[in-house]
Fold this protein.
Amino acid sequence: MKCIITIELGTNAVRIFAFDLNGITIGSMKGYYPTFHSQPDYSEQDPEQVFITMLYVLKNLLNEKVHPKKYKVASVCFSSSMHSTLAVDKHGIPLGNAFTWADNRAKKEAIEIKESSLADAMYNSTGTPLHPMSPMLKIAWMKKNDKQKFQQTGKFLSIKSYVVHQLTGEYMIDYSLACASGMLNIRKIAWEPEALNFAGITSDKLPQLVPVFATAGTLKKAYQNSFGLSADTKILIGSSDGCMATLGAGIWNSDMATITIEDSSAVRVVGNKILHDEKKRIFNYLLTEDCFVSGGPSNSGGGTFEWFAKQFGDFTTAYDIETCMNSLLQEATKISTGSGGLLFLPYLLGERAPIWNPDARGMYFGINIKHERQHFIRATIEGILYEMYSIGKMLSEHKNISALSANGSFASIPFCTQILADMFNIPVHVTSNANSVSIGAFLLAATEMGIFKSLDEAAGQIEIAQSYSPAENDHKTYMKYFEIFESLSNKLGDEFARITELQ
Amino acid sequence: MNQFVLTQGSSDELRLFPHIIESGIVKNSSVNLNAFPKIAVSGVKFFYVLDGKFQVNIHRAAFTLYPGDIALVLPGQEFGSSNEVLEIGSFTWLHIEAGRQEKDEIILDKWSSLSGNEIIAISKILFLSSPVVITKFNEAGKILKCIQQELFSQEIGFYARVNYQIDELFIQITRGLARQNNPGRDFAKTFIKLEEALRVDLSHQWTVDAMAALVGLGNTLFNEKVKSYTGFSPLNYLINIRISEAIKLLKNKNIPITEIALDTGFYSSQHFSTTFKKLTGFTPGEFRKNNSYTE
């Protein structure tokens, strides 16, 4: 019996799944690694700890769940969070920690390029919004602020490329993750000279560009022995977590969109065209030559609600944060749609799509004397979801959206899923497996093996577990409030900047 | 109780307790200039406020102590008021003999029935939380009162009870600190703190007991929480950090492997080698060979 292993190098943890060829989960395990914030705007991870944690978890999974059942591992498929940047020397040894997607140190560089004459051409060729998360800007920052490290660097890698290099000795990056670097020309499928020029590097400083189906070399002998894997186990380069969550949600070349809400969130669509947004708000990640995952990421999400729970939740009876959040959700259901006119802007961490304003800050608006604690709970949840709606609205300027597929721990809470259906006024489907990133990676590997003819066919395998229909009246209520939500978000630019300056 | 001061050498009550340097209650009814200078404390001093408000300075950090608050001054730390003024109010204190080893370890004499490991764990938590101040900690006040009553009454069993109560004071303060450090609502944040403490002193022989106490949880619950949060048992998580740090050091050829092993908390190079190989498939030596290059 053959099986497929998927390895997701996520924001806080590595998640490894073993699937049989029918997509049934044989087992899964995770391993946490820390993020270091040594200064404001800095967000780093230790590449060695990410690697060791991955090794440890993989080994445990193989020994406990895979080998005892006599499965033969056909392929190992990778996915990872986007925008990480790791400098290694010419021997592949890391020069310090990796910068994660959440690292904002390249703020100045982002403003510089946004205001330059390059901005339009750069967005047109790379399809990626200009934001400090972009590795192109992180490298430009390093060139200016850490000259010694910049000069010693042999390659600029993503964490995934580093981990794969440790296992096989190859330096590779797939198209979809390369898009997230802000340096890939998605029309020519090659590194964009203007972007490399801005970063201050040449293409030999970057890993080799390969399709998502590419084999990333052969597992080193010592790892074959240590894992009990044979030399013909394919190591697939795979894709990014965002693209895989979309594939795993089962929407493909249709007029559906996915909404993923974990700590942070995103709304995405898939199609064979690049969505060119005049305001440069939409990302376009090239998955295969004729397939683009387009959308908008938000910094708000479950993490925003968790912040609320920590500050205002009742911990006298609740033992941990989960029970506390559940009881808050219970309380929120007692308040009617629209929270009695209380609005919440969820910009605690600044915002990416659709307003792309790192200085944006949160706020409660419209408080009156009748508002109680429970109104604030519901308003917080609604605010997070209005933000999803506003990304959806931005996407629908370019593409018709007739249904949604929701996944991630926050979006799949029934109360939240129903609100999404009401806000968008279209049906929302939830798939049966919550781990859409891993399912997506499985579908990618299975397609590579020829089990499915195409990613289209693979995505068609995803079953819907539950559907939520919109309620017309609630939709109308939400839309009245959303108008105010949207105008506040746009109007407050100056005040956002001033308050951030003071913080 | 009325005011009193018992001093080693001059008070008969302390004859059987050479480890108690001083204990007493003071009711200060007028502001006393120059009465409370900052002095480096030898041994350990417990300072508990009964009434009023005191501005104190412990180890260069300023605190305002209110009734029910206790400060614990560790061996070698400075204690006093930054303007040397003793304010109006009353307080009680206990000053005991205690040594301090390198590695921030408190040494108590034979009178204490705390085991060696317990003292190590308690010292670890006290020094990591230093300067130690716990607010609204009436338990400590009760224990101090009990010690003083026993010293005066000298009823049967008082020797054992006094010494036992001093141990109890250490235990309760450590537990109180752990509770204060972690109200349990935010394990992610708690875990980050633990992570930092582990990294700061990776070569320390960490036990699950000490780690659990540091974040204020019982062993079973701590194990469970760490496992569900990280996917690893606490000790296995620690191995992840140790091996990750070791890898970085191995890639630098100039450090001998034995030294790396000890620096990262393995008790021998053999132990390091076995653990490393089990995880990575390479011995540290092989790993170094594969990852170093002649220029």
Notes: Chain A touches chain B at residues 13, 29-34, 46, 48-49, 51-53, 55-57, 59, 91-94, 222-223, 225-227, 310, 313, 315, 319-321, 324 (CB under 8 Å). The two ends of chain A are 58 Å apart (CA to CA). Chain A has a mean pLDDT of 94.
